[in-house]
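Exam revision sheet. Question 4 asks you to relate a sequence to its structure. Input first:
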Amino acid sequence: MKIRLEDLMTRSGVTFGTSGARGLAAAMSDLVCYAYTRAFLQYLQAAGEQEPGRGAVAVAGDLRPSTARILEAVSRAVEETGARAIACGRIPSPAVALYGLEQRIPAIMVTGSHIPDDRNGIKFNKASGEILKQDERGIAAQTVDVDEAMFDAAGAFRSPRSVLRAESSDAAEGYVARYLDFVGRGALKGLRVGVYQHSAVGRDLLVRVLSSLGAETVPRGRSDTFIPVDTEAIRPEDVEHARAWTREDRLDAIVSTDGDSDRPLVSDEEGRWLRGDVAGILCARSLEADVVCTPVSCNTAVEQCGWFKAVHRTRIGSPYVIAAMSAAAAAGANRVVGYEANGGFLVHSNLEQDGRRLRALPTRDAMIVILSLLRLGRRQGKRISELVSGLPSRSTASDRLRDFPTERSRAILARFDSGSEAADRAAIEALLGDVSGPVKSIDRTDGLRVLFANGEILHFRPSGNAPELRCYSEADTDDRARALTAHALGRLGAMR
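Answer key, structure tokens:
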């Protein structure tokens, strides 16, 4: 039978978000995952990026319960196109992406990142890196031939079978070597670092890298069940864990990642988790970047600090950051990096420091942020809290309304996009004027971002990965930023 992927997306509810295809695990049947993978490979073949019936594709996955089944469906689709599926195991998303770049082959990561374990996803990488928005459109436009006898009425394989050969450790080893070579063994000697492992797929590699660089590591919180750690909306229990662990274990910092280990968490010596966009600024500083590309939702301290030649703002999502980095490099910039509010950091340029080389990895990565902040502190003789206090005093906060349908989010935000700037300002002030006062300007680069006359910022947008309405705020203090977020979400939530 012929399956048009756009139609399958509509029927299944498994669609492209900001980080690949995402959906309920129950909706990601063998048929859906098989068809998505066939469409991806067919798109590459049509674009001349993979020869039909030949080549290899790296595949890996995270630790959530549905990943094993989806990995089999993805790998079977690869094998039945005539290509070879290289099983890279349960490793971080950036590790399999790096392996694909180095081997010049596509790479596929089965992961739902930070979202709950009743959901999952598939992240596609071309041999040249992450797929961009135009690639998503090209994949969605594919029509694939599928033998319907392979699947039952529920979309499950009638004859399940494993096509994955023995796992290769090459991707994991290459990822570890990347950081040992660049940072240098012994560079973190003297540091005592807690590692919040939970269910992050890169938890053991993180301990290994930190230990090899000389840090004393204290693993904490390992879990055999999946925990949806979101680096943009840290759970209250994780806030308490960090405070307790730094005190009990006398730690210089605690580090962690989300489920697929492409987004970092770093705490200071008091157990206070850093915002991802604050960590991104410090990471860019540590790498001596000259141009930074970052979404419109990120902290404005990146402009105010004066450390970078240029800062380019984008829509939210790594594909937009990647596109901006490519444009900056094409315009002549030599040390181009990017980061997102979730902390994921992207290195577009080949960088060199102290005679050590770091090859470009233009996809979200957690390891580079963790190591860069720890190394920057060692070099400057400062604690993590002192690195943060050296930035302009701009605090950010974020949270979300869960189980909030995307259509509802868009309908609410549409009330403030009438086509009349004056009317929109009046509508916003009617809703939030008692919270932040008069509106100075409105930015619709991605969602609704409002700059108030007092310098405070509120930014709303539907999540690209889940039925959630996200809110980002910026103010002069942490308490004020959190209060702004709570007030704003309370007002919007009442508009359901």
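Marking note for examiners. DSSP finds 16 helices and 25 strands in the chain.
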